[in-house]
Amino acid sequence: MTDALETVQARIDYEFKDISLLVAALTHSSYVNEHCAVGNERIEFLGDCVLNFLVGEDLYMRDPTASEGALSARRAATVSRTPLARIVDELGLLEYLRVGSGVNKAAFSDKARSDIYEALVGAAYLDGGMDACRKMLAATFFGKVTAARDFKSELQEYSVARKLSLEYSDAVERDGLFEASVAVDGRAFFGTGRTKHAAQIAAARAALAELMHE
Length: 214
Known about the structure:
Layout: H1 2-12, H2 19-25, H3 29-32, H4 41-62, H5 68-78, H6 81-91, H7 110-140, H8 151-161, E1 166-168, E2 172-174, E3 177-184, E4 187-193, H9 196-211
Antiparallel strand pairs: 1-3, 2-3, 3-4
């Protein structure tokens, strides 16, 4: 276990003063159910709060002209399951998570893997405060995670700026895919996706692509 903890600390570029916090961050609830141990759920909650603040701070300082809506959209896209899960995969952190017997870590969803990163941020905060978290994020997050475009927010801002009406339809499933439309000032644009949300995003992307090139 000692070697594993040293490896994790090297990969996140932070050395814990209280190693029990790192152990807790790497302990899944399934392990807690079978052993007398402290799990990472509460620490993950704290880490989520800290991560949102630090990413928001970074976005605010880097772009002094961005609106509140734009900053919120960028933060939501950056601090999301997929990029956090990718960090966990790239650093090989899932290997060191303690889980209960019979739990298949290879089947963990993006959410389950992203929780590991948030738990580590929370543990670093409890151990060394914001400076510790900033050090960890500098090594593992900033410069490595790029926010995906938030097409729905962009279309909302586009419409508000031009005083255009905006209305999304309910997505309808056809042949395993969802279809949705968005009406911009009465003009319809369509999109498809594997989920209702993805279909609306595709519709918003189609609307922006056409409206911004006219």
